Amino acid sequence: MPTTPQTTDELYQALQDNDQRPYGRTRTVTAEELVDAAEQFDEPVPLVHALLELQEAYTYGSEPRKSPVVFARLLTLFDEQPDVFDERLRHQLFWRFKWVAHALRQLPEIPLASLRQWLTEMRDRYEKEGLGLQPYYGQAYQLAAHVGEDTTLAYELWAARARTRLSDCEACETCQRALYHLAAGDDERALRVWEPVLAGKESCQEEPARSVSHALLPLLRTGRADRARELHLAGYRGCRRNPSMSAEVGRHLEFCALTGNEARGLELLAENRNLFDEVDSPLDQLDFLTGVEVLLRRVESLGHGDLPAAGYAGRTWTVAGLRAEAGGRADDLAARFDARNGTTTHADRRRTRLDRAPVLDALELTLRTRALDELAPAAPAAAPTAPAAGTVPEALPDLIRRARELDELGHPDARACWARLRTRVADRAYVHPDDAAVGPLVRLRADLLDDEAGRAGERDEYADAAALHEEAAALYEDAGRPGDAAISRACALLATAELPADGDGASEAKAAALTAAHASIVRLHEQTPGLSPHQEARLLRLRVTALALRLQTTGGEEHAAPVLAEADLLLAFAGRHGIIGQVSGALLLRASTFAMSGDLPAAVTETDALLDRLRAQGPAWHLPRTLSLRGRLRLGLGDAEGAHADLSEGLRLAAEWPADAIDTARLHGDLAEACMRLGRPDDALRHLTRSAELELRRGSRTDAYCAYSNAAQLSLDLGRVEDCIALLDSLLAEPAVAAGELDERLVAQLRLTRARALHAGEDLKAATAEFAALAAESAGWDDDPGSHAMIAAETAVLLGESGEFDRAREAAGQALAAHARDPRYELLSNCLRELARLQAQQQGPEGLAGARAFLADAGRVADEARAAGYEAHGRPLDTALAYEHGRVNAYAGAHEESLAALEQALALLGEPGTDGDRAGEWAECVRLAGAVEGIYLERPAPALARLDAAVARLTALGHTEETEALTALAARLRDER
Q1: pTM for this structure?
Q2: DSSP character for 935?
Q3: Which of 446, 432, 442, 426 has the alpha carbon at shortest distance from 399?
Q4: pLDDT at 514 over 80
Q5: What's the confidence (pLDDT) of residue 376?
């Protein structure tokens, strides 16, 4: 707390501010300090308010030991000074008898007799105050259920009584009723009782999150897996990292364990690591730890006990180690509760949970489904590989020769051979074969470096690739292999040229570097004697690749012809020497060159011919890449069906080869685009997530996150809000994000999509907080003021929806300042008009001045747009502004001003024509003008004339749907005359 309140007004303001904080240590400590501050005043009422706030913080901050102590002080104040408690304070006091009963149940050190004594105290005080006893019987039933007694009578005594003002809310009582039927083994009846809560019709601080966590397994057992999945995503978000809902988190972990989602369970466990240390309730600890143990036992049973797991602070944990620790603590807690209660109920319930078998082998919970193998504490797992075309030889000389033969052919199986050799050479016991055909060890080390360099280049790690190629070249020289050294040096030149350049002239600088690299490779080619045909073909291929990359960089027509010339040199040379892999490579480069030059039909013709050749002569592993290119070309030509067919075939053929040899991630990404064009967004979403998974597995983190970002946006567009949020939560929880290893703008885009999804999911508070944080960060993006304007504008609107118009004005001011540097006319106009509408609608006449100030800013934006010759993509800014003036003044009761503004809007719109959108806008303007004039200004005659004329005009133009609202309003006005 910054400063201690010096007056009661300051205290009440501090209490109000603290009430806005989330439950947790910060709120609790502040509440404790405010109680100390309240004690300095002579008045008891401020102290009562401070104590109530403190008890609430303890109750929802999972500190049940302290809640009864605070309540005892409140009860003493009530007994000594009952007049201090007005009706509202008295209601709160008697409501919280239930909180104390709940807190005492959670503490095994409190004797059972004391729990019963407290319920007697509650009943006596309720009777003395003339209060209904239904809340008392509700607590008596909950105690019976906790202890494990026969609950039949206790349930009837509670459930059969009429509710009172002090009864638990409808949602909480619904949950208790459902749990009664669940305990009796009646899943169907429990779910029927739960339905209003699960459907969101009843809710409170703890609901529906609590009910959802209990309903997950019954839903699975009754065949409602899709509903369980949906509720898991939404319900988990409502309880994660919340100490007072740790038991619910435990049940979500259990759900993951029993549906084949063990990897997601470990991910959620890591997200909730704070619960190991922040939950002070022994009963909640027991439920949480049992859920943790269910998950960890399942992971361990699958052979992954050595995986890292997030557990108690102060040490690192494996799955097996944490399972033993959590299990031991949970056993102790269960024993303590059973000793207190004189039953075996908690040990029995715990054993039932631990003994449950998986309900489903696999249930896809999120868009990012991962297996436990992918969580291994090693380098990122390689993508699963298809069976190799040939087995890897065991004899070392054969293995070395096989690797070189396959590498010379460009065969995908070469990678498996090099990987095997890398492992064997790294072994301390390695002995190089004395075989002239194999050559010296230095040559093999050069081969392995060259392979490693190629992999680095595929990951766009060009600096590492260049260094490794240079090192390989030196070793090849030592081994007496000048041709191989020349190829490695050429590769190093090309990798160096591909290093990204910074600044405004980056494209020109990269083009110049590639031109220089090409010239150097040509010289290297010409000056290296004794090249074999395969070596010379490799150098020719590198020459044409350098020029092709230059064309890709600049897009200049003048750079296309040199590529084709070099490709033809390669084609002729490889054809003469029968090097079929380089022949097809040259033909593919020709097709790509036509594509980059914009001649898509010619590119398709080239790929058609190449595909015929590949099917007849091979190499077969070039087919997926060629089909991928033709698929993209067909997309460019608008042939989505043909593109989808090519890309699907490419994906099918790619499965025949090692997964890291074919760019299947690109195939899935292109298939996603084809599916979108074909109107199959769900298939597109599947391909996007698959593409992202493959990119991540091969180490292309940025490409992976870009694909995931697209998948998240698509899922949001499809209305799959919880899928979107769950995906983004998973991505943003990755260690690489927390460590700042990912591009900050990409992370900001992920957060922005998440904030929009939270808004779409009606979590206004969380969405506003995320938007406000993004607005503060993006204010420092001096190179991108337009994005800051967009974020600040959206933030302002959310603040307006929350009724925080001072903060909304501040955010709108930031948006306007950024707009001045990088104009966003339509965005700012929409934002300011919406803020005006919100303020007038929420505050009425009192908000009119503020609303008009927003509209004045919108007017200036419209003036700027008109001066700049800007044309809006949606409604014209002047027309939209005039309409909003009409609506805002109507909300605020300024009806004459409203009608005048609407008349102006109609004049700007002009008479409707055949365009449906414009006719709809015109009809809405007429409708609002008719309502203001006929209802609020009580001038029905001119209003009816206006409406009748509009209906006739729209009907004549065929816009019958647009007349419905006008006809209904006219009928109402006639009825009221």
Answers
A1: 0.84
A2: I
A3: 432
A4: yes
A5: 61
Return all residues near 921 (Cβ < 8 A) that are at least 6 apart.
875, 879, 883, 909
Residues 6+ apart with CB under 8 A from 953: 911, 912
C-alpha separations of 499 from 485, 506, 932 in Å: 21, 10, 65
| Among 171, 169, 233, 168, CA closest to 200 | 171
- Mean pLDDT of the 299-306 span: 96
Q: Are 833 and 880 in contact (CB under 8 A)?
A: yes
| DSSP code per residue over 517-555 | HHHHHHHHHHH--S--HHHHHHHHHHHHHHHHHHHHHH-
Structure tokens at 736: 């690489």
Could you report the per-residue pLDDT of 519-552, keeping only the tens digit for each? 999 999 999 999 999 999 999 999 999 999 999 9
**271 CB-side CA count, 13 A:** 24
What would the pLDDT profile of 82-93 be if each residue is shown by its tens digit? 999 999 999 999
Mean pLDDT of 784-794: 96
Q: Where is 562: in which H helix or E strand?
A: helix 560-577
Alpha helix stretches (DSSP H) within 272-375: 275-278, 282-301, 319-341, 345-355
Whole-number Å distance between alpha carbons of 877 and 860: 11
Nearest to 115 by CA among 145, 155, 89: 145
Calpha distance 388→416 (Å, rounded): 8
Count of beta carbons in the 10 Å neighbourhood of residue 230: 18
Q: Could you read off the pLDDT of 710-721 as tens digits, one per residue? A: 999 999 999 999
Residue 2 has a pLDDT of 64
Q: How many whole angstroms separate alpha carbon 403 and alpha carbon 447? A: 9
b/e burial code for range 199-220 (CB count within 10 A of at least 16 → b) = eeebbeebbbbbbbbbbbbbbb
Residue 382 has pLDDT above 70, yes or no: no
The residue assigned the tokens 């603290």 is 18
pLDDT at 377 over 60: no
